[in-house]
Amino acid sequence: MSKKAPWHSVKQTVYHDDTDCNTGNNIERENLRTGTGGKPKCAECKKLDK
Ligand SMILES: [Zn+2]
Question: Rounded to the nearest whole angstrom, what is the distance from the C-alpha of residue 38 to the centroid of ligand 1?
């Protein structure tokens, strides 16, 4: 598992913090922002936590 500083997409309602998350990895560069954006953590990243 690879933890990273949180990032999110302006097109999504969640943030990501795991580099193994497919959804997090597929964010288009123009939609990518650093930080949580005040959003809840993505379900896939939560699963990768365990
Ligand atoms: Zn994620």
Answer: 15
Instruction: Give residue 47 CA to ligand 1 midpoint distance, Å.
Output: 9
At 50 the pLDDT is 80
pTM of the model: 0.90
The pLDDT tens digits of the residues spanning 14-37 come to: 999 999 999 999 999 999 999 999
Q: How far is the CA of 43 from the centre of ligand 1 (A)?
A: 6
Ranges of each domain in the chain: 3-49
Q: What is the dihedral of CA 49, 19, 9, 46, to 10 degrees?
A: -10
